[in-house]
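ugh ok fine here u go
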Amino acid sequence: MNWKNNSTLRAGVVMILGILFFFGLGAIIPTLFNAYVFTIVMYAGINVTAAVSLNLVTGITGQFSMGHAGFMSVGAYAAAFLTTVILPTAEIPPALVPLVFAGSLFFGGIVAAILGLVVGLPSLRLRGDYLAIVTLGFGEIIRVVILNVETIGGARGLPGIPQWTSFGWVYSVAFLAVLTVRRLLASSHGRAFLAVREDEIAAEAMGVNTTRYKVLAFIIGAFFAGVSGGLFGHFLTYLNPATFDFNRSFEIIIMIVLGGLGSTTGAVAAALFLTFLREALRPLQEITQLDFRMIIYSGLLIVLMLTRPNGFLGTKELTDFGFFRRFKGLRQ
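structure:
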């Protein structure tokens, strides 16, 4: 079998090599930075997964969702519930921890995906502002429900979560999210997603089941958002419903708008940039005793919208430029 002509086999090899690379790098990275910088690096990787998953829904399929943090919270609490209540850490042999952790992340992603299906089927028949309002309401409903469920801590939050998230886990999941989206875009499903974004009426006229593809994008996006939430909970070791409020959803929206709606590499770059920018501005707050971070944060977004309305990369990818063109075939 010629692996160069077999895109599935080639993608599998790339996936395995990527995971091995990031887990290998994870043995080195923690020794290069102090705890504070390493924490920012970890949050940046989690934000990459969240941004890429939302970009599939909003940037690639054109459905404006404002409740993405709700899927993160569902995945985070589902995964943490499994590892703290159903399977207490003390009873798990150390050799099985990676397997249990992978299973808990997958479980959190599946629960979020199922909820995405439940919410998506009725709401994705709506368009534009109406869809945004429904998804915003969904995010708030999830937060209020979690506040009132004592089994998962309620308003007190859920403590005692094992700290199993590592650099390898965070960036391997981010890599898998990017690879999945790029593979989807190179398929007939990706062309259907783009058709829905460009002109939904024309797509329907050409035989594309627009509701089906919008729901599919919603489910995949919710799955990866849930996994990113599971990673977040098992790194912070504590969950609180206030962490996943509207501001969290809006922060992810800013990332994909800044990078360029429809650009996967743009979403990755913006997630990394904005995560580090927020902390880079912290010394200014200490000097002035005023929090200028959000003002500068918002100002940069306004400047970008005035100078580059389509975002930093627009709908282009890194492989559309210069030296990186030679890697364009790897996504197919």
